[in-house]
Structure formats: structure tokens, C-alpha cells
Amino acid sequence: PPIRLAFSEVIDPLTVTNNFTVTDSTGAVPGTFDFDLETMTSFTFIPSRDLTGASVTVNAATVEDLGGNSNAGNTFAFNLGNDSTAPTINTEEYDPSQWSHQRAPSSAGDYRVLRAPRPKLCAHGDGADHDYSHQSKHKSGDPRHH
Asked: By C-alpha distance, which of 63, 34, 38 is closest to 46?
């Protein structure tokens, strides 16, 4: 995976290409640099080999700004790995007629704003749908008292 570094000031690209290093257990990692040419405040190191699962050290201490100020002491060590956590996708049926459609004026024309219906929550623990839209009328604030 690429490694991106961002700085608060414009950096001298020669100090990056000549001095910046990434190492893993086998030594120096070869790669290329992709600079943010618009701001020159960040760059991305693109390793020539797969570093997934590797422990790497990034030495940014030798990167300097245009005034010659270095980032002394900025060396980072971390592990690179695959994202092993699968995403959680929740699906549920919905009734499109329960969505409200409103027209909002716009100088570019009309557009629709869609709002989902307020979900019903079950505080009884029985999994059934209960209407708690009146819960603010109860002083206790407990929606089970209806």
C-alpha cells in the first residue's frame, strides 16, 4: 500500500527523493514518489513491492521545508496489513409510501428532499413494534409507561 505524508509547510522535493527512506525486515524498500504539485505540502511513497504484512519504518526526519528546516525526530514505525474486518451491511424492508416528498425551491430548479419515517424502538424487549411518538407526554421519560 502507498504511504502518504503531509506537512504544514511547502517541502523541498530533493530532500524527499535523496533522503527519505522506508525500510522493512529485508532492508530499504525501493519505490517512487508522487508529489502534490498543487501545494507541495505532501507526497505519497509508492513501494515497488508489496508491503502487506510488513513492519516498516518511515524516516521523515531528513525531509526539509524550503527554508532548510528539517523534521528532526520524525521517524515512524508501524505494521501494514490487509483490512481483515468485513463490512456490516444491514438490510430491511421499507415501504416507499412512508417516505415524505417535499419540494424545495432552488435557483437551479426544483429538487426533492426525502425523509425517512421515524424508527419505532422496542423498549419492552419483545421485538414488537410499539409507537412511542407520545413519550414526551410522560414525566418519567420511560416510553414503556403508555
From this structure: 34
What does the alpha-carbon distance between residue 97 and residue 100 come to, in Å, rounded to a whole number?
A: 8
Per-residue pLDDT band at 2 (split at 50, 70, 90) = confident
Cα 5 to Cα 11: distance, rounded to the nearest angstrom: 11
**Domain annotation for the chain: domains and CATH numbers:** 3-79 (2.60.40), 96-135 (no CATH)
The reported pTM is 0.52
Element (H, E) at 22: strand 21-24
What count of other Cβ atoms lies within 10 Å of the Cβ of residue 11? 25
**Dist CA 58 CA 21 (whole Å):** 6
Q: With H, G, I as helix, E, B as strand and everything else as coil, classify residue 16.
A: helix
| pLDDT tens-digit readout, 110-125 | 444 444 444 444 455 5
